[in-house]
Amino acid sequence: MKKVLIASLLSAMFAAPAFAAAPGPYIALDLQNWSASNTGALGNPSVGLRIGGGYRFTENWGVEANYAQSGKSSSVFGADYKFTAFQVAATGTYPINPQFDVYAKLGVSANKFDSTPSVANNTKTSLLYGVGGQYNINQQWGVRLEYANLGDTTNFAGGNQVSASTISIGGVYSF
Q1: Of 145, 153, 156, which Cα lies nearest the Cα of 128?
Q2: Count of the separate structural domains present in the chain
Q3: What average pLDDT does the chain have?
Q4: CA dist., res. 22 & res. 174, Å (int)
Q5: How far apart are CA 113 and CA 31, in angstroms?
Q6: Which of 127, 172, 165 is nearest to 145 (CA)?
Q7: Got the DSSP string for 86-138?
Q8: Burial 129-149 (b: 16+ CB within 10 A, else e)
């Protein structure tokens, strides 16, 4: 009897409620820190936002589409510039436990670099890949942290290819 009571107490202490995100549609809003390589005197873009949504077909597989935009930044030349990206990716999710998932994504990103006055305005489609983790508060709400590499965004005169990546934190709502 004591063994059953102790086993029941231990089970109750370590049992986790089922919070894992269920298959179905979701929306997300993330705050992003943008980073770019080969920008020279332009420097790095500022913080931006990403809004998107997706559909989880199973606990492990889904698709996601996002629109991301950096804030406006200024260069030493007096030009203002920003990056935008439209992204579509397949997602693979591995639930570590009911509260925490890790995921990876692979897809394409249509990247655009805009500057005023025009230094280089260019759109380039590149490979997108990323990894992240999601903490599930309950079955509807989650918080996620993600790194995404958006690939090449533009070519400057002289052949410099500018690549962008983001680190983001945000919320997810599953329907």
Answers
A1: 153
A2: 1
A3: 81
A4: 8
A5: 19
A6: 172
A7: EEEEEEEEEEEETTEEEEEEEEEEEEEEEEES-S--EEEEEEEEEEEEEEESS
A8: bbebebebeeeeebebebebb
Predicted TM-score (pTM) of the model is 0.78
In a domain, 13, yes or no: no
For residue 69, the enclosing domain spans 23-174
pLDDT for residue 11: 46
The answer as to whether 9 is a domain residue is no
pLDDT at position 77: 63
Q: Which of 7, 82, 23, 54 is nearest to 170 (CA)?
A: 54
Residue 175 tokens read as: 């329907």
In the chain, which stretches have pLDDT less than 50? 1, 4-18
Q: Is residue 170 part of a domain?
A: yes
Residue 137 lies in a domain: yes
Q: Which two tokens stand for residue 172?
A: 């997810």
Residue-level pLDDT at 9: 40
What pLDDT, on a 0 to 100 scale, did the predictor assign at position 157?
53
The number of C-alpha atoms within 13 Å of 24 and in the hemisphere containing its C-beta is: 9
In degrees to the nearest 10, what's the CA dihedral of 35, 81, 153, 90?
70
**Residue 3 to residue 17: CA distance in whole angstroms:** 24
